[in-house]
Amino acid sequence: xxxxxxxxxxxxxxxxxxxxxxxxxxxxxxxxxxxxxxxxxxxxxxxxxxxxxxxxxxxxxxxxxxxxxxxxxxxxxxxxxxxxxxxxxxxxxxxxxxxxxxxxxxxxxxxxxxxxxxxxxxxxxxxxxxxxxxxxxxxxxxxxxxxxxxxxxxxxxxxxxxxxxxxxxxxxxxxxxxxxxxxxxxxxxxxxxxxxxxxxxxxxxxxxxxxxxxx
Length: 215
Description:
The protein has one domain: Porin. The model has no long low-confidence stretch (mean pLDDT 80). The N and C termini lie far apart (82 Å). It has one helix spanning 2-19, and strands at 42-54, 72-87, 90-99, 103-105, 108-111, 113-127, 132-147, 154-169, 174-191, 194-214. A hairpin with a 4-residue loop joins β6 (113-127) and β7. It has 215 residues and is mainly beta.
């Protein structure tokens, strides 16, 4: 009887093994690929103190009381910007710059000329260290120098603008930067809406020192 019971148990066990396919499959763990999100992307805003200069100004908008050797400067100006960083190497950025004081010749406030610039740039960046990034700007903008005095002339030009700079990351959101932008370098520009060509260039550049915050 015991032999019969053992035989029946053996048959049942073998039948179960046969139904299962006869093979014992090893347990395989699912492999999950971890994708690291790009934390560098996002919107940002910023502002800066700006020192602007007109290094090769046309005589046409130079006050008669200024010496021909003097360069026009705006020692107090401001710049605000907004942009979107696509990745750690590329961003698109818009800037608006305006003078906050009178133009100076030979360090004297002798003319009420306002400087205004609006531009949009492609921004190419390269991290040279974990917290330091160098960058270049290239884009399109419009520069306006407006006389708010008696003559009330307006000098305008638009076209290619560029810049170079560097930024220091205080933390993942806040950074400080310094850059130089060339706002205009042309010998043909509009005077009160009429295009004219002059022997001296309208050559405007600016140095910006500011902060930016990325959301």
